[in-house]
Amino acid sequence: MFANESGTPDYASILHCIEEEVQPMLSQGKVASYIPQLAKVEREQFGMAVYLLDGRSFSCGAAHTRFSAQSVTKLFALALAYRREGHEIWQRVGKEPSGNPFNSLVQLEYERGKPRNPFINAGALVITDILASRFVESEIAVLQFMRQLADSNSLDFDRAVAESEIETAHRNFAIAHMIKDFGNLHNPVKRVVSSYCRQCSITVNCLELARAGSFLAGHGKIPWSEQVVLDQSSAKRINAVMLTCGTYDAAGEFAYRVGLPAKSGVGGGIVAVLPGVACVAVWSPGLDPTGNSLAGMYALERFTTLTKLSIF
Ligand code: GLU
């Protein structure tokens, strides 16, 4: 029913089915409220897009609606830092799941300022610092990188979200000060935190996000331009870190249910990679208690079930 005679998934019907299935879930999650501006987003929205390496794309629902990428930008910041600095970055940030909330301070103290991985806030702040040593404004470098990958110059910062986050970024300031005290932050704390908050405020829609992440499905190459963003080995490593650390404290649950490397954000977006085949983006602002989009995670679970495609 969801595949043609040769077994190729019928993506259009699959997305249509998923869109119907998620409807009852849209009123169940909780919109992130610790960044005041994010609390204003209407909860009952859902969009999904699939970008296939052969150039075809499929979408449903609010796939054209822009949302706050938040932690999803950590993926692109990491890829940019990796592209510039190579394996050296692992001297300053680890690649193990933290087992703690994304904004936790406790581990940093006894691990002497080396964050567990680049997807918790501590690790993302170190990545921002690495970029800040290379670029005058690291957040602009990340924005331009995302624009290039998405092939869309209209991606931009959301100033209201950035300001709202900077005003309430007490925890991120505390994390950055702690890292600085251990000597693992080379630029001023204020500069790093404000660049990080501005980076998190980048808005994107599902179609753009699926396209932007497709180089990770393409083993490091942008599928439509053949441009090499990362070598195959580095792309594999980023996918591996996404699988183990990309979805907050639910990476095990996510791997079990979905079976794809993915990065989520508190804006309700998730980008997931099916190496060699496609990049998938979903968005629904209602979050589950682990901070992942409730309907988004379910949609990806249904996607891998109905297409019979996953990394396992
Ligand atoms: N800007 C958010 C923060 O640092 C990102 C959180 C997220 O999406 O995980 O708190």
Structure description:
The mean pLDDT is 96. This protein has helices at residues 11-22, 72-85, 106-110, 121-132, 138-150, 159-167, 170-181, 189-200, 206-212, 214-217, 232-245, 251-257, 294-307; strands at residues 47-52, 57-61, 67-68, 203-204, 262-264, 269-274, 278-283. By secondary structure, it is an alpha+beta fold. The strands form 2 sheets. The protein has a 5-stranded antiparallel beta sheet, with helices on both faces. A two-stranded antiparallel ribbon has the order 3-4. The longest helix is centred in the N-terminal third of the chain and has 14 residues, at 72-85. The protein is 43% helix and 10% strand. A hairpin with a 4-residue loop joins β5 and β6. α7 crosses α8. It is globular. The chain has one domain (11-306): DD-peptidase/beta-lactamase superfamily (Beta-lactamase), CATH 3.40.710.10. It binds glutamic acid. Glutamic acid (GLU) binds next to loops.
Strand order of the largest sheet: 2-1-7-6-5
Shape: globular
Q: First CA to last CA: what distance?
A: 22 Å
Main sheet summary:
5 strands, antiparallel
Strand content: 5-15%
- Unreliable spans: none
CATH homologous superfamily grouping: DD-peptidase/beta-lactamase superfamily
**What's the CATH architecture?**
3-Layer(aba) Sandwich
Question: What keyword list fits this structure?
Answer:
312 residues; alpha+beta; Beta-lactamase; two-stranded antiparallel ribbon; 43% helix; 10% strand; binds glutamic acid
